[in-house]
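#onboarding

Welcome to the new folks! Below is a worked example of what a typical request in this channel looks like: someone posts a single protein sequence, and someone else replies with the predicted structure as tokens. Don't worry about understanding the tokens yet, we'll cover that in week two.

Example request:
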Amino acid sequence: MNTANKLTMVRVVLIPVFLVVLYLGFVGSAYIAMLIFIIASLTDLADGYIARSRQQVTNFGKFMDPLADKVLVFAAMLWFVERGSLSAWIVLIVVVREFAVTALRLIAVDTGRVIAAAKSGKVKTATTMLCLIVMFLGLPAWGELICAALIVGTTVFSGIEYFIKNGDVLKGAK
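Example response:
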């Protein structure tokens, strides 16, 4: 297993650790969980850089890296929903965007085309991860509202961009 894939696996292993620490609920557990989330998020940045710079892009990485990102982000978002710091409709927008873009990519593969990650998708992921990290610090209501707006805005923008740039794939779908 190459270095990039090892970092992805570290992220996968950190997800249940993150959740266990969150739900143990001891004094300071949210801050420890935030540190775990930061480390897991940084592995995403590192494994992407390593995979591209060392030409270590693998089918395993193409599949597991985005899946690990989504599970990590959804785990944190759902915890914030449970705490009342984030509205469920925000998570629904993120989930719908992820399913829609994934479906578009699957249709594209069927037509012999690969849809690579767009810059706006990377900005969406980074913005969401940063906002979630900031939310762990315990923001006032207006701060949570700003984070929610940033998450929704980058999610919707990147989803629309994927369909504008690649919508022609739908015309050729069987």
